[in-house]
UniProtKB/TrEMBL annotation:
This is Helix-turn-helix domain-containing protein. One of its GO terms (molecular function) is DNA binding. Residues 155-174 are annotated as: Disordered. It comes from Leptolyngbya iicbica LK. SUPFAM superfamilies: lambda repressor-like DNA-binding domains (SSF47413).
Length: 270
């Protein structure tokens, strides 16, 4: 801390040696004493002497000393201002402060930043997908629920009730039962809508086994029981004792029926 002060005092002393020499030589050349100059300038004699001998310990602060030098020089007919500015204190260079707003603000990406960004993107994607699914679910769930007459009208085929029946193909009429078999206890009429293999068992005896074509119609009779086994049940319509004709089963499947009807079994295709 003392070293800079010593340097400044040394500098002032060296400056004042040159200035004091000029003032002293000029005063002596003019034949004036320090006392006469003290009276003329109203500067104390000790200060005038300190200026001439460069004794800075007897002088006030440099700013006041410069004022004394100016007045002393002007009283001798010199340029007091030019002399005064020779006595100066060099400006110290201030260490630039590091302001907060001058700190580098360039972002530095680190792995944690990338991880956070990745998590945020995944969250946004999941939210968008969830929102889309909710919207789709809402649209599906907001379809109007039809009830009562409205539902019946919506389910009703075009053309009004009975239109489907009207459009459905008319079941072929069962052939008339010949008079010679009209008294048989069991009478089964078979009509072929599609070609099918058939096996007819009458009272335990196989009376027919073969293929009938579409449009064929046959009547078999029995005393106690008649069994029909068909390879294409969907193409065979059967009427028992002139009753309503019914399809024996599903198309392409094997079915067997016994008359009088106890049950109708669906058998796997062989």
């Amino acid at each position: 801390m003392n070293k800079p002060a010593q340097n400044i005092n040394q500098l002032h002393r060296e400056q004042l040696v040159y200035i004091g020499q000029i003032l002293r030589e000029t005063r002596e050349a003019a034949g004036l004493s320090q006392a006469a100059l003290a009276e003329k300038t109203l500067i104390r004699l000790s200060l005038l002497n300190a200026i001439e001998v460069a004794d800075i310990s007897q002088l006030p602060e440099p700013v006041y000393t410069r004022g004394l030098i100016r007045r002393y020089g002007d009283s001798l007919g010199l340029d007091g201002e030019a002399l005064a500015i020779q006595y100066f204190t060099p400006a110290t260079q201030k260490k630039p402060s590091r302001s907060f707003w001058r700190l580098p603000i360039t972002p530095q990406l680190r792995p944690v930043h990338l991880y956070v960004t990745y998590v945020v993107l995944i969250g946004v994607a999941i939210s968008a997908l969830s929102y889309t699914l909710q919207r789709m679910s809402y649209q599906n769930s907001t379809l109007p629920v039809l009830e009562g007459e409205v539902a019946e009208e919506a389910m009703m085929p075009e053309g009004g009730p009975g239109s489907e029946e009207a459009e459905s193909p008319t079941a072929p009429e069962a052939p008339a039962v010949p008079a010679e078999v009209a008294d048989a206890p069991v009478r089964v009429t078979v009509q072929l809508q599609e070609q099918s293999w058939l096996r007819i068992t009458t009272d335990g005896t196989v009376t027919f086994e073969g293929i009938l074509k579409e449009g064929d119609s046959k009547i078999w009779t029995a005393e106690e029981q008649l069994r029909i086994r068909a390879g294409n049940a969907g193409g065979v319509r059967v009427s028992f004792n002139e009753g309503n004709a019914e399809v024996l089963g599903q198309p392409g499947t094997v079915a067997e029926a016994t008359y009088p009807p106890n049950n109708t079994a669906q058998l796997p295709r062989r």
